[in-house]
Design goal:
This protein starts with a helix and ends with a helix. Helix 5 crosses helix 6. It is built from eleven helices and twelve strands. By secondary structure, it is α/β, with parallel strands linked by helices. It is globular. The strands form two sheets. Strands 3-2-1-4-5-12-11-10-7-8 form a ten-stranded mixed β-sheet, sandwiched between helices. Strands 6-9 form a two-stranded antiparallel ribbon. Helix 3 links the parallel strand 2 and strand 3. The protein has a domain of 250 residues: 3-Layer(aba) Sandwich (Rossmann fold).
Length: 373
């Protein structure tokens, strides 16, 4: 019995060790400083599988790159499923890096407990993605909480601090951002990722678009707005139809900034239809951020670009969703609609726009990789 006990104890310690190694990639023997790495903030199973889909289908064209998911252990998300996922053979290019230490909201815009780790990750990567998610705590951008539902405050502290270290901001003008050392480094965000980029650089948010921008206080009033003024689906608050999609598709328009027309090479006549799922938006712009696209009525900022760093840009919509690029489940926006897949709801021209956007991302990361060699 004593021998069996020792054996079980040994197995336990081996499993603990392996789990720990799976979350500390940059300290492991598998880390290779000569490889090309791209960081993924908040590496949930969904986000990891999304990037894998985009790479596998050559939508994101990075054949030689590997990915490091970075996150704070203080986040509310359980990353045990992500640890299991990266053990699957097709996920061999995905790794995880946990950050143990915590920080207070008063220290995220300065050198802090995370700074050295942020710098090491920055030094050994070509870029980083920031994904969608829940509302940022308004006190971070100097507002009272009026309409925000904050479910993961520590995730926001971590990601905002990382973005501040990369880009700098109005909150601490003396801080020298990491990108001053590598100005071609790639940084992008989708939805919350755009909002985080704005807040991290000193901007603020509209906490609820219907209530604060359009003065609509409930779902029934919201649905009286034009469809292009809705940024998620409020029918779900009225009826329990299981076929209703939680998102909305609406058009956007480009500003005079050349990002979409010259960099993305989008059709100048096209008002592309995009997948939208948010109720907050940029209010005051952060330091060195320029607007590249808006909603059709100009009330919601849909795209931003950095004034100094060419490969730093973000969008309020979701170009990363796999269902945009393949046939999937048929859903409805309104109860009386005919069900359609996301793929069907985009025209061929809309899909071309999205593919060109991913080509732009691929080229930006390739440029960052070449600049480091």
């Amino acid at each position: 019995m004593q021998t069996i006990g020792k054996f079980l104890l040994l197995v336990f310690f081996v499993l603990v060790l392996k789990t720990g190694q799976a979350q500390n990639f940059i300290e492991s023997a598998d880390f290779n400083a000569n490889k090309n790495y791209v960081l993924l903030a908040h590496p949930t199973v969904q986000n990891l599988e999304t990037i894998q889909f985009l790479v596998e289908n050559k939508i994101l064209q990075l054949p030689d790159a590997e990915f490091i998911g970075v996150y704070s252990l203080a986040e509310s998300y359980d990353y045990s499923k992500s640890i299991e996922l990266i053990k699957v053979p097709k996920m061999s290019k995905f790794h995880l890096q946990k950050i143990d230490k915590e920080e207070s909201s008063t220290r995220i815009y300065a050198k802090n407990e995370w700074t050295l780790t942020f710098k090491k990750l920055f030094d050994h990567s070509a870029g980083i993605f920031f994904f969608g998610g829940p509302d940022i705590q308004p006190e971070i951008y100097g507002q009272k909480n009026l309409y925000s539902e904050v479910t993961d405050p520590n995730r926001h502290l971590f990601e905002l601090s990382f973005l501040f270290h990369l880009l700098g901001g109005y909150q601490n003008q003396e801080f020298i951002p990491f990108l001053q050392e590598k100005p071609g480094y790639f940084v992008t965000g989708f939805c919350l990722g755009l909002q985080s980029m704005n807040v991290a650089t000193g901007g603020s948010l509209t906490q609820d678009i219907p209530a604060q921008t359009y003065k609509k206080m409930n779902a029934e009033e919201n649905l009286k707005l034009k469809k292009d003024q809705l940024h998620r689906n409020y029918w779900q608050e009225i009826t329990k139809d299981p076929q209703l999609m939680g998102i909305n598709f609406h058009q956007i328009r480009y500003t005079a900034h050349p990002f979409f027309l010259k960099t993305v090479k989008a059709d100048k006549e096209l008002k592309p239809t995009v997948l939208s799922s948010h109720h907050q938006s940029i209010e005051e712009l952060g330091k060195n951020l320029i607007v590249t696209a808006t909603s059709m009525d100009g009330q919601v900022i849909e795209g931003i670009h950095h004034r100094i760093y060419p490969n730093v840009f973000a969008v309020q919509f979701h170009p990363e969703v796999p269902a945009l690029y393949q046939e999937g489940k048929k859903l409805k926006f309104a109860p009386d609609d005919n069900p359609k897949s996301y793929f069907e709801l985009l025209s061929p021209e809309d899909r071309t726009f999205h593919l060109k956007y991913w080509q732009t991302i691929s080229k930006a990361i390739e440029a960052s990789i070449k600049a480091q060699k």
